[in-house]
Amino acid sequence: MLCAGKKSYFAAAVCIITVTSMLAISYLRLQRLSHQPKVIQEGKRCRGKIANSTITALKGNKTFIISPYFDDREGKVTRLIGIVHHEDVKQLYCWFCCQPNGKIYVSKAKIDVHSDRFGFPYGAADIVCLEPENCDPTHVSIHKSPHGNIDQLPRFEIKNRKAETFSVDFTVCISAMFGNYNNVLQFIQSMEMYKILGVQKVVIYKNSCSHLMEKVLKFYVEEGTVEIIPWPINSHLRVSSTWQFMQDGTHIGYYGQITALNDCIYRNMERSKFVVLNDADEIILPLKHPNWKTMMNSLQEQNPGTSVFLFENHIFPETVSSRMFNISSWNTVPGVNILQHVYREPDRKDVINPRKMIVDPRKVIQTSVHSVLHAYGNSANVPMDVALTYHCRKALQRDLPRESLIRDTTLWRYNSSLILNVNKVLSQTTLQAQK
Question: Among 209, 262, 363, 421, who pairs with 376 as Cys (CB 3.0-4.6 Å)?
Fold first, then answer.
């Protein structure tokens, strides 16, 4: 016996710890070896059909692939953003076809279902595979088995293979637009506020919207501000419009919002310095700075090593209006006029306000809606005197009298530019007649 002859409790304890550590190291080494890519075929051409849909269902496997991304932050891996059944999907394999030598490698995937599933049977997942050392694959296929015919499997292009210089400073991720969305005026106001604050790109995961909203989206796409990612998740799963499972037979919460947010971070990892995670009815408003760039420069200087900045969400109920900025030409446009909503609800006792985020996407591994789940670096709560998330929506504290609300006119600092810009958009989209 390795521990024979040791009489003291201390020596025995050291011995047990040593043996346990050796076994753990051996187990981890075996686990890593089991995930190493193995050549299964040679001399093949990659002939599988390239997947072009945002959401691709794997046959009979309760697995849906969004997109794979190259990730070399902890080794050379392909990380696929997907949706899986948290109990039924236990085993997946990445099939890499390396050209020009035609070798096909199979790598066992690590399936990491995100912890923020909120009780739904399906959840966002990272499907992570080690890549072959002597190959930089451009595409990958996913299969439930290490055996089969690669020609029958859809092929997915691996994004982020080449590091790029940032093309923009700020990208806003909005997920998901659903329910025949028709809050046109507030959407335009949010878009123009984002641009005033320094945003160059807005990525929208679109499930459904009204015909009028389609017209507005087309304008912003042609302008170069908006990128539309089709999000037909209800073609694959029974979706809920709430975030918490209600035992109602639905598969996934809030139209798969968490999956879309994670995809948006990886999609913009190499092209945007910061990614902003909020909804179309939310605006992160700086109080001490004129725009996001100066605010983030200051926050990063004050918080070295921080990669995630969280901004407290405050409700400005759409049912309580100011008489200011009742612009008659806007009254025919469906939606809320945020300039008229400058009364916010007070904090609720024993309730922590949720937060929305501005993150360094290269430091995020997994995100939820109001916080990151895994990241390199620290998270920092931004004080409310520096910035807050303006959220104009239905009241949460519906019984509060008007005098109990807090008048907060921070938004009015931008009113001249905002009115001018919104009028230009309404004119150019012919939603109102030119004057």
Answer: 363
Measured in whole angstroms, the distance separating CA 31 from the mean position of its chain's CA atoms is 30
The rounded distance, in Å, linking the Cα atoms of 348 and 354 is 12
Nearest to 406 by CA among 304, 292, 309, 317: 317
Q: How far apart are CA 276 and CA 168, in angstroms?
A: 12
Angle between helices 415-428 and 184-197 (to 10 degrees): 120
Number of domains in the chain: 2
pLDDT score recorded for residue 36:
86
pLDDT single digits (tens) 307-321: 999 999 999 999 999
Residues 151 and 268 in one domain: no
Residue 109 to residue 14: CA distance in whole angstroms: 35
Is residue 12 included in any domain, yes or no?
A: no
Tell me whether residue 3 is in a domain.
no
Classify burial at 176, counting beta carbons within 10 Å of its beta carbon; exposed 0-12, middle 13-18, buried 19 or more.
Answer: buried
- Residues in the chain with pLDDT < 70? 1-34, 40-44, 432-435
Going by the DSSP 8-state scheme, the letter that residue 155 receives in this structure is B
Would you say 356 and 284 are in contact if contact means Cβ atoms under 8 Å apart? yes
180 within domain boundaries? yes
